[in-house]
Design a protein that fits this description.
The structure is a single chain. It is built from 20 helices and no strands. The protein is mainly α and about 450 residues long. Helix 17 packs across helix 18. The longest helix has about 50 residues.
C-alpha cells in the first residue's frame, strides 16, 4: 500500500490536550488497535467529532419525527389523513432500500466521510423545505410538498447510513464505537426532551414551536455534515466492482455465503417489532391522532425522550462488551414493555395519562438497545472491506420487511390492538432466541 493511498486526512491539525483528556475520560479502553497508521493519534478528535455530529443529526431526527411531528403538521394544515399514511413508509423504505445501489460507489471513494457529510447536508436542505412548506402552504399542496421533501431526505439518509459504519470503523478503534453512538443518543434525547417539555408547557403556539423545531433540525443536519467533513480518515478506496443494478443485486450473495449475516438479519427483522408496536399502544390509550401534542400523547413523547436519555450511554457501553447480549436483552425488554401495555389494558388503566407512557418508556428502552446493539454488532463482526456491503444488504432486507409490515399491520389490526401487541411481543422473544445463536463479535 502506498503512502498516498493510506495517508490520513488530518486537515493539517493534531489532537489537542482537551480532546485527549475528554477522550480518555469517556471512551474507555480499546482491546485492539485496528486503525490505519497515522489515524491512531487522531482518534481522540475523531471520537469527539463522531459524538458531536451524531448528536446533532440524531437530535434533528427527533425534531422532525414523521410519526408525530410531521403527521401533526399535515393534519393541522388540512392535508388529509391520506398524506399522513404515507409518511412512515416513505421515510423508512426510502432510507433503507436505496442503500444496495449506492454502496459500491461509496466503497470506491477514497474517503467515505464525504458521502456522509453530503447526505447530512441534503437532509438539512430537505428539512428546511419541509419547514417552508409548513409555513407557506396548506391543504393538498402542503401534503405533496412535505412528502416530496421527505422522500429526498430519506434517500439522503440512506447514503449516510450506508457510509457511516465504514467511516466509524476506519476512524475509531474497536471497543469504543458503541460508546460514541451511546453518548450521542443521550445528548440528542436531551434535546428532544426539551422539545417535548416546550410542547407540553403551552407557553408558545404549537405550530410556531414545530416550525422552529424544523428550522433547528435543518441547521443541525448542516452542522453535522460540516463536522464530519473534518474527520481524519485514511485515503483508501476499495477495488472497483462495477456499478448498476446487476452489481448491486449481486451483493445479496453475502446472505448466502455468511450464516452469521443471515442470522443477524433475521434477528434484526424480528426486532422491528420494537419500532412497529408504539402506534398500537397509542390506539390502546384511546388517543386520536387529530391534533394536540398534549395529554396522553405529550406524556408519551416525554417518556420516549427520557428512555433514550437514560439508556443510550448504558447500551453503548454494554455493546462494547457484548453487542450480542444487548440484542438479546433488548428483545426480552421489548416484549416486557408490550406485556406491560397488555396488562394495563386488561386492568382498564390504558385510558390514564401515566399507563401508556410507562409502557412506552420500557419499550423505548428496548428500542434504543436494538439500534445501538445492531449497529455495533455489524461493525465488529464484518471485515473492513465487508462493512459497507453487509450494511447495505441488511438494511435493504429490513426495508422490504418494513414495506411488507404495512399489509401485515393492517391484517393484524383487524384482530385488535391487543392481539397485535401480543404478536409483536412474540416476535421480540423470538428475536432474543435468534440472537442467542449468534457468535460473539
Amino acid at each position: 500500500m502506498s503512502d498516498t493511498a493510506s495517508s490520513p486526512d488530518t486537515n493539517g491539525t493534531r489532537d489537542d490536550g482537551l480532546a485527549c483528556a475528554v477522550f480518555d475520560r469517556v471512551a474507555g479502553e480499546s482491546e485492539t488497535d485496528d486503525l490505519a497508521p497515522g489515524i491512531r493519534a487522531q482518534e481522540p478528535a475523531n471520537f469527539l467529532r463522531h459524538v458531536s455530529a451524531l448528536s446533532l443529526t440524531k437530535a434533528a431526527d427527533g425534531l422532525i419525527d414523521p410519526k408525530l411531528v410531521l403527521s401533526w403538521l399535515l393534519t393541522q394544515g388540512g392535508a388529509g389523513a391520506g398524506f399522513v399514511g404515507f409518511l412512515v413508509p416513505i421515510r423508512e423504505a426510502g432510507a433503507l432500500l436505496p442503500q444496495l445501489f449506492v454502496t459500491d460507489r461509496i466503497r470506491r471513494m477514497a474517503r467515505r466521510k464525504w458521502a456522509w457529510a453530503g447526505g447530512s447536508a441534503v437532509q438539512g436542505l430537505a428539512a428546511a423545505a419541509i419547514g417552508l412548506a409548513g409555513f407557506m402552504l396548506s391543504g393538498p399542496a402542503l401534503g405533496y410538498a412535505i412528502l416530496g421533501a421527505l422522500a429526498v431526505l430519506a434517500v439522503a439518509r440512506s447514503v449516510c447510513s450506508a457510509s457511516y459504519k465504514d467511516v466509524l470503523g476506519r476512524t475509531v478503534a474497536k471497543g469504543r464505537r458503541g460508546t460514541a453512538s451511546g453518548i450521542a443518543g443521550s445528548v440528542a434525547a436531551g434535546a428532544v426532551l426539551i422539545f417535548a417539555l416546550v410542547l407540553l408547557s403551552g407557553l408558545a403556539p404549537r405550530r410556531g414551536v414545530v416550525l422552529v423545531a424544523l428550522a433547528l433540525a435543518a441547521l443541525f443536519w448542516l452542522g453535522g455534515g460540516t463536522l464530519m467533513s473534518r474527520m481524519a480518515e485514511p485515503s483508501e478506496p476499495a477495488k472497483a466492482q462495477g456499478g448498476g443494478v446487476r452489481a448491486a443485486l449481486g451483493q445479496l450473495h453475502h446472505l448466502r455465503d455468511d450464516w452469521r449475516l443471515r442470522r443477524f438479519v433475521l434477528a434484526r427483522g424480528l426486532l422491528t417489532a420494537t419500532a412497529l408496536s408504539p402506534p398500537y399502544i397509542v390506539l390502546m390509550a384511546g388517543e386520536g391522532a387529530r391534533g394536540a401534542l398534549g395529554g396522553e400523547l405529550g406524556a408519551m413523547v416525554l417518556a420516549s425522550s427520557l428512555a433514550a436519555l437514560v439508556s443510550s450511554y448504558v447500551w453503548g457501553r454494554l455493546s462494547d462488551r457484548s453487542s450480542r447480549w444487548v440484542l438479546m436483552l433488548a428483545g426480552v425488554m421489548g416484549a416486557a414493555g408490550m406485556g406491560l401495555a397488555l396488562g394495563f389494558g386488561a386492568a382498564g388503566l390504558m385510558g390514564t395519562v401515566w399507563a401508556p407512557a410507562a409502557a412506552l418508556f420500557v419499550l423505548n428502552l428496548a428500542h434504543q438497545g436494538v439500534r445501538i446493539g445492531r449497529s455495533t454488532y455489524l461493525v465488529d463482526m464484518a471485515r473492513e472491506d465487508l462493512r459497507a456491503p453487509y450494511t447495505s444488504v441488511g438494511n435493504t432486507v429490513i426495508g422490504v420487511i418494513l414495506l411488507a409490515s404495512g399489509a401485515f399491520g393492517a391484517l393484524a389490526a383487524a384482530w385488535g390492538a391487543e392481539a397485535t401487541l401480543a404478536l409483536f411481543a412474540a416476535m421480540a422473544i423470538a428475536a432474543a432466541l435468534v440472537a442467542r445463536g449468534l457468535p460473539e463479535a
